[in-house]
From TrEMBL:
<keyword id="KW-1133">Transmembrane helix</keyword>
<feature type="transmembrane region" description="Helical">
    <location>
        <begin position="29"/>
        <end position="45"/>
    </location>
</feature>
<feature type="transmembrane region" description="Helical">
    <location>
        <begin position="80"/>
        <end position="98"/>
    </location>
</feature>
<feature type="transmembrane region" description="Helical">
    <location>
        <begin position="57"/>
        <end position="74"/>
    </location>
</feature>
<keyword id="KW-0472">Membrane</keyword>
<protein>
    <recommendedName>
        <fullName>PA domain-containing protein</fullName>
    </recommendedName>
</protein>
<feature type="transmembrane region" description="Helical">
    <location>
        <begin position="110"/>
        <end position="129"/>
    </location>
</feature>
<keyword id="KW-0812">Transmembrane</keyword>
Length: 613
């Protein structure tokens, strides 16, 4: 039994070492488990076996290191402990002496497999822990900012600007409403006496006009059209319905495919989010935030492949989400034009369609759209000059959107511009109004639409060849959002809370700056996130990827992409937006005060299993 215990012990220690690198969001829990197990193993050697092996002292050393790791949160102690665990795992596993021929052969094979797993664990340990953001730093003296209330737009003025924005209707990229909104923004800025610098673009644009579905003469309610899926004439396309099972689309050739999108099947949040901190304490990631965005992005079939298979059209049936929540959702908005029309319908209507498909009924799907081969759009920026002509702070958002919160960052930036234009600044502040967020296949560059702007305006941020250097940034998105959720009965309604204020930061200084900016707010619900496994939602991602220290403010309400007639004004609160603008201004002034050396550089992505609690 002693032999097999050492075998088991080697495997257990290997798992612990692997877990230290992979489950970076659970390191305190793993540290506690490692401490307890190391202590129990030490007791086993010392008192049960009464062994004099020196290995038992390594277990004591691990306990000491784990205590240091638990109390200091320094990555170096996780490295040391992890590699000691690997050493012990190898020693314990390879110390067996087996004479029986059959068992000996199995053991030899086991040693080869174990060696391979040790190599994998070493890679995971180094890569995972190295990517884990460290909380260890010296807090600088942050400027205490008291805003001049008379210089800040009132709630009434902000609301007037919001209503003007809404009057343009839907503002998807390159649409008439979007272009009118951009022109109004530029007019407001030039009226302040500021100069606007523009980058113009053209692209192939698609905008829904009419979407309808009927089966054997019965009208089926359409929740939304799949953007840039395809187009039909006024007569639509007609074909037999085929319910798709097990991702087998071949039976739908020459027919209309019916596909379920199950919103109850979710990607584990620790694979896409890594929580660093919260304010107030114990504010957590809400698992349903952004659920329909992820479901539509990850579960919808590749329409281009279906077109190549000869499928005529696609009906996407929502499951596990209320009819009200998915009505008019502009989803997904991240795919190329496919040339095959697709519509979303709610679960109740979907049951009818699936029943019809079982009887091989015939449907007519209509998706008329306005298209332009050479649609015009533009990004623009405004720079407020500071004493230091070589350094910049970038404040950015996107101008395209579909409702009051998506995207009102530009309205917030107008108020910030008005306030800061007469302030004595240390650094240049570049306000960047970006197009293309709702046409990412064209404008995303490396990640989001801001990456195209960065590529076209390197003189403002990259610090090379005499260019200015961006030393920090703030991304402004989705202000004034109230939380609405499906309740346990599937009723979509307000929860009484403000929407969780997800805030991406890529170094500890940015985290402390935002804490300082929000600490006096009456109502905040901040969850600090770090870019994780190549995921960072919003227009802060391109800045993050350039290692510019950034604060990415991005609440993500369930109605974020709802293209409704009332622009979701019933879910918006102007007082909340006003208070959030105050916090953003405070953060900008604190960043303006901090020297470049204290701002540091941004960390890269963290990897593997993040923290969401």
């Amino acid at each position: 039994m002693k032999k097999y215990f050492k075998l088991f012990l080697g495997i257990l220690l290997l798992l612990l070492a692997f877990s230290k690198g992979f489950f970076i969001g659970m390191q305190k829990e793993i540290s506690l488990v490692t401490t307890i197990l190391s202590f129990l193993i030490y007791l086993y050697y010392e008192f049960l076996l009464k062994s004099k092996t020196k290995l038992r002292f390594i277990y004591l050393l691990i306990i000491f290191i784990e205590v240091l790791s638990f109390t200091t949160d320094l990555n170096v102690f996780n490295y040391i402990s992890g590699f000691l665990l690997l050493v012990l795992a190898v020693v314990e596993f390879f110390s067996l002496h087996i004479e029986k021929r059959g068992t000996k052969t199995i053991y030899k094979v086991g040693k080869v497999i174990f060696t391979f797993l040790v190599i994998i664990s070493v890679v995971v340990l180094i890569f995972g822990i190295n990517s884990k953001p460290s909380n260890s730093f010296t807090t600088p003296n942050l400027k205490k900012v008291t805003l001049k209330e008379n210089n800040l737009d009132s709630e009434e003025i902000m609301l007037q600007n919001i209503e003007i924005m809404n009057s343009f209707g839907s503002r998807v990229t390159g649409s008439e409403g979007h272009n009118e909104f951009i022109n109004w923004l530029k007019s407001e800025i030039t009226d302040m006496g500021l100069e606007v610098h523009t980058n113009k673009y053209s692209f192939e644009q698609w905008e829904e006009k009419i979407s309808e579905l009927s089966i054997d003469g019965e009208k089926i309610e359409v929740s939304s059209a799949y953007p840039y899926s395809g187009v039909t004439d006024k007569n639509g396309v007609t074909g037999e319905l085929v319910y798709i099972k097990n991702n087998d689309y071949k039976p739908a050739k020459g027919k209309i495919a019916v596909v379920e999108i199950d919103n109850t099947k979710k990607l584990p949040l620790p694979l896409i989010m890594n929580k660093l901190d919260s304010f107030p304490l114990h504010t957590n990631v809400v698992s349903s935030d952004g659920d329909v965005v992820l479901s539509s992005t990850l579960q919808t079939p590749n329409l281009s492949k279906l077109k190549n298979l000869g499928v005529k059209a696609v009906i996407l049936v929502w499951k596990g989400v209320s009819n009200e929540k998915i009505k008019d959702q502009y989803l997904p908005f991240t795919t190329d034009y496919a040339g095959i029309p697709a519509l979303f319908i709610n679960e109740a209507e979907g049951r009818k369609v699936i029943d019809y498909s079982n009887s091989k009924a015939t449907a007519t799907l209509t998706l008329e759209a306005n298209t332009q081969l050479d649609a015009k759009t533009e990004s623009f920026y405004v720079m407020l000059e500071g004493k230091n002509k070589d350094e910049t702070i970038i404040i950015n958002s996107h101008t395209d959107g579909v409702n009051v919160v998506e995207e009102n960052g530009s309205i917030a930036m107008l108020s910030m511009l008005k306030y800061l234009k007469d302030e004595p600044l240390n650094k240049n502040i570049v306000f960047t109004f970006v197009t293309g967020h709702f046409r990412l296949p064209v404008f995303k560059g490396s990640s989001q639409a801001t990456s195209t702007w960065l590529n076209d305006n390197k003189e403002l941020w990259d610090g090379e060849n005499g260019h200015k250097k961006a030393v920090s940034a703030i991304t402004v998105e989705h202000l004034g959002s109230l939380e609405w959720k499906d309740d346990e009965n599937g009723v979509y309604k307000p929860t009484g809370n403000i929407q969780s204020e997800y805030t991406y930061v890529n170094n500890s200084i940015m985290l402390e700056v935002w804490k300082e900016a929000i600490k006096d707010r009456e109502n905040t619900r901040t969850v600090f996130l770090h870019g994780h496994n190549k995921f960072e939602f919003g227009e802060s991602q391109p800045l993050f990827e350039e290692n510019i220290p950034v604060i990415g403010f991005i609440p993500m309400p369930d109605y974020l992409l709802t293209n409704s007639k009332n622009r979701e004004m019933d879910k918006f609160n102007i007082t909340l937006m006003h208070n959030q603008v105050k916090s953003l201004l405070k953060a900008a002034l604190i960043l303006d005060d901090l020297p470049k050396e204290q701002l540091g550089v941004g960390d890269g992505y963290s990897y593997f299993w993040g923290n969401t609690k």
